[in-house]
Amino acid sequence: MYRFQLRPATTDDLDALTALEQRCFSSDRLSRRSFRKWLKRQHSGLIVALDDDNALAGYVLVLLQPGTRLARLYSIAVDPKQRGRNLGEKLMEAAEDYALQQRRPYLRLEVRKDNAAAIALYEKRGYRLFAQTPDYYEDHQDALRYQKRLLYLPDNAERLHLPWVQQTTPFTCGPACLMMALAALKQQPPSTTEELLLWREATTIFMTAGHGGCHPMGLALAARQRGLEARVWCNQTGPLFVDSVRDPEKKAVITTLHNYFVEACKAQSLPVCYEDFSAADLDDAITAGNIVLVLISTWRLDGRKAPHWVAISGSDEECFYIHDPDPGEDQAPLDCQHVPITREKFDQMRKYGQAKLRTAVVLSV
């Protein structure tokens, strides 16, 4: 029986990790600098396997997405000389154990479409295919995306088929989310021009220290203009976002636009419910086939307390799943799709600012 010692990696392993990467992969390799970065990161776990001679036989790298219940198996490698000794499965077990220790009951991974051996291993361990990303690897091979729910049995809840759209500017999260809904409900392909036009229609012009974000009624009116049915939940009746700026003239601009959006909704008989909404309300809207855009604070995701629109792509008894249009600097686009967030944390996220604004836009055809 082959025995391997598994332990957390240290900086002393950098040379061996880099050499192993060279032996295992001909492309999409992690560099020595990348290994050093992941060793320093708080939200990552790099585990190495040593053989009886204390030589590096393999490793697995797991990343933790802040503010969510999601872990991602970023990379796994087994020395070609050690293959056939069940080390890949042992490393997978270590990755799953690490994810659970970090209170991440969901583990995701990507695998080359032509890597039959790895796919067989993942499926044997209970990973389920949920998406495919074309042209993902350096040689243009497609990636298959798998997920395993480590703590709970899979349920039968159907996930909304919501395409993911990445925002192309720092301030167009709302339009990107609306384009996701348009792609799902009207089969309208996203475009940068449409993204900017939607922002022009829905923006508050000013917000915090940068460009203005999108008003929920502005997004709903833009959706109505493009053939969607829309309604708004909002727990405040006065002007939104005025507490995010100090300049009186900017406050006056935000107030003017708010009043315009309110009157436009009345003129178009677009429903606005001035009440808070619950998790049950979100579930009911999703079950009815609607797509819901929700304004959140990013504090629990990146510590910035910024207002940010996300789209709900599904829900189950434990979590809401979101499409986040902004990968930021440290995340891959794959990490921003169907992100599982516990109901408790999502309830905390969907409060923005000192006024604890809660608002959402419900879209349908």
TrEMBL record:
Highest rank taxon of the organism: Bacteria
Pfam families assigned to the protein according to its UniProt record, in alphabetical order: Acetyltransf_1 (PF00583), DUF3335 (PF11814)
Tagged with keyword Transferase: yes
Domain N-acetyltransferase: 4-151
Transmembrane segments: none
The keyword Acyltransferase appears for this protein: yes
UniProt keyword annotations, A-Z: Acyltransferase, Transferase
Designated name of the protein: Acetyltransferase
